[in-house]
C-alpha cells in the first residue's frame, strides 16, 4: 500500500499544477481554485490512473480539462478578465527598465490566444516534451507544434516594437 501511495504523489506535482493553472487562469485566486478542482477530480478518479504512467501529464490533462469545462459552463470568465485588464492598465509603471520589460513580456504571454498560451506553457515552462504536451492537451503533435510556432511568432512581433534600454530577448527571436 505504501508503494501505491508513492506512485500517486500528487503533492510533488503541486508546483507544476499551480504554474500551469496560472498560465491558463491568469488570476491567482482562479488558478488556486483550478488546482483544487483538479486535485479533487484526480482523487475521485485515482483508480483510472495507470500504474507506471506519467502522473504529471495525467494531472496536467485533468487540470486542462477542468479549465475547459469551466470555460464552457461560465461566460463570466471573460468579464473577470476584462476587469482584471482594466486594473493592470491603471497601475503605475515601475521605474526600472527591466521590471517594465518583464511586465511587457508577461502581458504579451497572457495576451496570446488560449490554445497558444497553453501549448507554449506546457513546453517552455513546464518542460514537457512535445509529445507529452500534445497528449496533455489531447491534440495531434503537428497541431501542438503549429500553436507553439504561432505563439513564438507573436512574441517576436512584440520584440520588433521599440524597447527600453537593456530589454530582454525572446529565445529563438531576433534582435538587431
Structure description:
With about 180 residues, this protein is mainly alpha-helical. The protein has two domains: about 5-90, RNA polymerase sigma factor, region 2, helix turn helix motif (Rna Polymerase Sigma Factor, Chain: A, Orthogonal Bundle); about 90-170, Orthogonal Bundle (Arc Repressor Mutant, subunit A), CATH 1.10.10. Helix content is about 70%, strand content about 0%. It has nine helices and no strands. Helix 3 crosses helix 4, helix 4 packs parallel to helix 8 (about 130-135) and helix 8 (about 130-135) crosses helix 9.
Describe the structure concisely for a colleague.
With 176 residues, the protein is an all-alpha fold. The protein has helices at residues 2-7, 14-25, 28-44, 55-73, 76-90, 97-111, 114-125, 130-137, 141-159. The protein folds into two domains: 6-91, RNA polymerase sigma factor, region 2, helix turn helix motif (Rna Polymerase Sigma Factor, Chain: A, Orthogonal Bundle), CATH 1.10.1740; 92-170, Arc Repressor Mutant, subunit A, CATH 1.10.10.10.
Amino acid at each position: 500500500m505504501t508503494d501505491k501511495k508513492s506512485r500517486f504523489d500528487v503533492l510533488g506535482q503541486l508546483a507544476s499544477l499551480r504554474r500551469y493553472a496560472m498560465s491558463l487562469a491568469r488570476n491567482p485566486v482562479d488558478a488556486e481554485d483550478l488546482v483544487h478542482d483538479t486535485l479533487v477530480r484526480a482523487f475521485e478518479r485515482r483508480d483510472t490512473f495507470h500504474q507506471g504512467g506519467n502522473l504529471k501529464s495525467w494531472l496536467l490533462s485533468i487540470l486542462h480539462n477542468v479549465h475547459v469545462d469551466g470555460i464552457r459552463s461560465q461566460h463570466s470568465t471573460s468579464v473577470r478578465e476584462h476587469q482584471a485588464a482594466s486594473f493592470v492598465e491603471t497601475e503605475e509603471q515601475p521605474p526600472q527598465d527591466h521590471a517594465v520589460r518583464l511586465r511587457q513580456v508577461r502581458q504579451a504571454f497572457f495576451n496570446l490566444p488560449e490554445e497558444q498560451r497553453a501549448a507554449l506553457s506546457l513546453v517552455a515552462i513546464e518542460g514537457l516534451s512535445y509529445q507529452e504536451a500534445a497528449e496533455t492537451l489531447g491534440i495531434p503533435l503537428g497541431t501542438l507544434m503549429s500553436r507553439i510556432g504561432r505563439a513564438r511568432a507573436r512574441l517576436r512581433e512584440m520584440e520588433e516594437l521599440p524597447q527600453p534600454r537593456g530589454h530582454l530577448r525572446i529565445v529563438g527571436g531576433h534582435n538587431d
